[in-house]
Amino acid sequence: MILAIESSCDESALALFDPKRGIIIERISSQIELHSEYGGVVPDLASREHLNNFPLLLKELELEKYADQFSHVAVTNGPGLAGCLAMGGILAKSIAFVYGLPIITINHLRGHAWSPFISLHENDPKGFKSKLEAQLPHLGLIVSGGNTVLFEIDTSLSIHILAETVDDAAGEALDKGGKLLGLAYPAGPRIEILAREGDSSYTEFPKAMGNRKDKRFSFSGLKTSLRYKLDKMKQSDIDGNLSSICAAYQEAVFHQLIKKTGQFIIEGNYKSFGLSGGVANNLNLKNKFNKLSSSHGIPFYSALPKHSGDNAGMIAFAGFIDLEYSLETQQNDFVNIEPSLSLIDR
Fold first, then answer.
1. Which of 164, 165, 139 is nearest to 152 (CA)?
2. Residue ranges per domain, the chain?
3. Residue 265 in contact with residue 296, Cβ under 8 Å?
4. d(CA 10, CA 83)
5. DSSP-derived pairing of the beta strands 11-18 and 2-6
6. Is 23 helix (H, G, I), strand (E, B) or coil?
7. Would you say domain 138-298 falls under CATH 1.10.10.10?
8. CA 183, 171, 250, 294 torsion: positive or negative?
9. Which end of the chain has fewer surrounding CB within 10 Å, N or C?
């Protein structure tokens, strides 16, 4: 059984994973309300809160019940806030020392990459290996407040980055756009709600990286375009058309994600597609990718809402994959990714 610890930003999370059953228990303590008054995560405050939250979570887990079943401790080792990661690392070393267990270090983005397959394992643990292999090569997209990464998992289960953002992440663009519109942090979910009542054709925003050969994402220009557009509008017009502005802005973000991903699906020979990261909770985006996958005849996998943000369940599962397939040497697939740390994975 794997005990997993996640503390990359402002979520304190623990999970227990049994290879024969799946995730048997997981707990998470969020700091969103605490940081909302600052408009983003305050690193020192986040680190301090981990010290307060982890003892409470450990008490809820009642580790003594599973002491004789532990095999490994899995802990997030980056990317993330240094102080927050250190809190998780110290906890992992302490537990490993007490129970005499080896530690597995897991890249946070690697956890996201594997999270869409958690349910596949849970539904049939015994048949998981063959079912997973039938989905390879796999194309995946991580869309969160700090990262936008398109990648593939090949038949050897190696992860290769295909495209990533050159500036803001998609979730960051939504949150910053929402801030320009006067929406409270985190603004991305609020934009989604307002967009449902709006008309996405109300106004048009620029579609960046339209060149088929350009294997990158870019969203900072979109945010700038929104600012210029709002500067030319009266506040009464903004208030009266807020839902439609949100719908148009969100559509511009999603258009780039869908178009770029579709190009890779056409050019590749993928057996499945997966969506993960906090923005994967957006039902509009999820439906768009479900239709895209169906149009190309490949199954669509999406991380469950509870496994889309910062959570220990995906860290435990990634640790299981590494142990099951002896992939410890591939821990640094995402080592060159430098995500924004101003916003959390929603």
1. 139
2. 2-127+307-330, 138-298
3. yes
4. 11
5. antiparallel
6. strand
7. no
8. negative
9. N
- Report the SS3 class of residue 159: strand
Q: Terminus-to-terminus CA distance in the chain, angstroms?
A: 28
Q: pLDDT tens digits for 207-252? A: 766 666 778 899 988 999 999 999 999 999 999 999 999 999 999 9
Helix (H, G, I), strand (E, B) or coil at 142: strand
- DSSP code for 214: -
* Domains 2-127+307-330 and 138-298 belong to one CATH topology: yes
Those residues of the chain that have pLDDT short of 50 are 329-332, 336-346
**Which pair of structure tokens corresponds to residue 77?**
């080792």
* Per-residue exposure over 117-148, b if at least 16 CB sit within 10 Å of its own CB, e if not: bbebbeeeeeebeeebeebebbbbbbbbbbbb
CA 246 – CA 267 distance, rounded (Å): 32
pLDDT digits (tens, 9 = 90+) for 126-156: 999 999 999 999 999 999 988 999 999 999 9
User: In the numeric block, which tokens belong to residue 159?
Assistant: 């992860």
- How do the residues of the chain divide into helix, strand and coil, expressed in percent and rounded to 5? 50, 20, 35
Domain 2-127+307-330, classified CATH 3.30.420.40, yes or no: yes
Using CA atoms, how far apart are residues 88 and 326, in angstroms rounded to an integer? 24
Q: How far is CA 295 from CA 14, 127, 315, in A?
A: 38, 27, 32
